[in-house]
Amino acid sequence: MTTGSLPPLSLYIHIPWCVAKCPYCDFHSLARRGPLPEGPYIRALLDDLEHSRGGLPGREIGTIFFGGGTPSLFSGSAIAEILEGVNRRMALAADCEITLEANPGTIDSSRFRAFREAGVTRLSLGVQSLHDPSLRRLGRIHDAREAHNAMEAAAGAGFRSFNIDLMYGLPDQTAAQAQADVRAVLAVDPPHLSLYELTIEAHTAFAHDPPILPSEDERMAIEEAATQTAGSAGYDRYEVSAYARPGYRCAHNLNYWRFGDYLGIGAGAHSKLTDGQGVTRVVRNTDPVGYMAGRDRIASRRRLARRDIVFEFLLNALRLSEGFTQDVLRDRTGYDFMDLESLWAPAVARGLLGREHDRMYATPLGRRFLDALLAEFLTATEILPAEAS
Question: pTM here?
Answer without folding.
Answer: 0.94
